[in-house]
UniProtKB/TrEMBL annotation:
Protein name stated in the entry: Extracellular solute-binding protein
Chief place where the protein resides: periplasm
Organism placement in taxonomy: Bacteria, Pseudomonadati, Bacteroidota, Chitinophagia, Chitinophagales
GO cellular component terms attached to this protein's record: periplasmic space
Signal peptide: none
Organism: Arachidicoccus ginsenosidivorans
Length: 379
């Protein structure tokens, strides 16, 4: 057992936990004086739970980038640009999948390194499509027609509902939060809600209880649904032997001639400002986010890498029915959420407003007003 003990916190899924245990084990074999123990929490806690206390309890943190503003302004994480070699940072920037690297920067400093890259993409059951002799939907109108057949499912819990609302706004040509004090213009917002409502009205209400993992578990274990138009991609479900029925992943349908623009997600690895063994923690970070480890050990043990070399790799693509090359265009155009200190409060509550409207109806103008009021509520 090493004299130096590092504790890490990640999220509870094969994609979030097992690759970190594997990389930690190999790092410990190469560094006999270090012991790394990874702990895990639920996906909901990962998105919602404040990282202030976590930074005091753990040395290594897998985090969601909207927390970066809070972490930076409250000095909870190390500014990695002051600890990592400039060459390494430049390599990571050049190897960024879409805006993954940028998402962990704030006020000119880097607070985490991308570990995992993801955005909502389309997915389907190839066996069911083949049996039905169906074509994959290419347009939003095709998607509505497929939904009429009862074949479509998507995640509809609050945070995913908000991400989907952002998606419709971006695809309509206006990014959220471009005007001070306003989430989105009334014209774009009303159109986005109308489009969303037109689709969700054709989908099983069970969707409102599902996150992406539950969608993929449902798709891969039953024959009830064959297509998901947008949910954060999980390459695990495309791998042989992972699920009863493999899921294939692809780019999204087009709306008004343009492919849907989804909201980038993924995770980053940060180091707590309270860490007693900063140099060892930084060394593990460099090791785990390196191209060689991301493409091989990290991926092979269930990870969804963030390094572009891994996304372009023949091996990773052959093992996932070309998940990475087929969804990379969606990552490249994905929208980057705000990262300012205080945004998380908005994200934690805004999805409920849109979700309630989709479930119960009401005046869409009131939804936009409530979103703007929430945005301007100081916390």
């Amino acid at each position: 057992m090493g004299q130096i003990r590092l504790k890490g916190i990640t999220w509870d899924h094969s994609r979030g936990y097992t690759p970190l245990v594997a990389t930690a084990q190999r790092f410990m074999e190469l560094n006999k004086d270090v012991e790394i123990i990874w702990h895990k929490r639920s996906l909901q806690d990962f998105a919602d739970k404040p990282i202030g206390q976590l930074a005091k309890d753990f040395d290594l943190l897998i985090i969601d980038y909207p927390w970066i503003g809070y972490a930076a302004e409250t000095a909870k994480l190390l500014p990695l640009n002051k600890y990592l070699p400039e060459q390494f940072l430049q390599q990571q920037l050049q190897a960024s999948v879409g805006a993954s690297f940028e998402s962990y920067t704030h006020q000119g400093q880097t607070w985490a390194i991308p570990m995992d890259a993801a955005t909502p993409v389309a997915s389907y059951r190839p066996d069911i499509f083949q049996q039905g002799n169906w074509q994959l939907p290419g347009t939003f109108e095709d998607l509505l027609a497929l939904a009429d057949r009862g074949q479509v499912i998507l995640p509809g819990i609050a945070v995913d509902t908000l991400m989907n609302f952002y998606m419709f706004c971006c695809t309509l040509g206006e990014n959220p939060f471009t005007q001070v004090g306003q989430v989105i213009s009334e014209q774009t917002g009303l159109q986005a809600l109308e489009l969303y409502k037109s689709l969700i009205s054709k989908i099983d209400p069970i969707c409102f209880e599902l996150n992406p993992i539950k969608v993929y578990e449902l798709m891969s274990s039953t024959d009830q649904y064959s297509y998901c138009p947008f949910a954060y991609g999980y390459s695990n479900y495309a791998r042989k032997g992972y699920a009863a029925h493999p899921i294939h992943f692809t780019d999204l349908v087009r709306l008004n001639g343009k492919p849907l623009i989804t909201t980038i997600g993924g995770t980053g690895l940060g180091v707590s400002a309270y860490c007693m063994y900063k140099s060892k923690a930084i060394a593990y970070l460099q090791y785990t986010t390196s191209a060689a480890v991301q493409e091989a050990l990290y991926f092979e043990t269930g990870g969804q890498p963030a390094h572009l070399q891994a996304w372009m790799s023949k091996g990773t693509n052959q093992a996932t029915q070309h998940f990475f090359t087929r969804t990379l265009p969606a990552l490249k155009r994905a929208y980057l959420r705000p990262r300012y200190n205080g945004y998380i409060y908005f994200q934690d509550h805004a999805g409920d407003l849109i979700r309630n409207y989709l479930i119960s109806g009401g005046q869409p103008k009131n939804v936009l007003s409530e979103l703007n009021h929430l945005l301007n509520t100081v916390h």
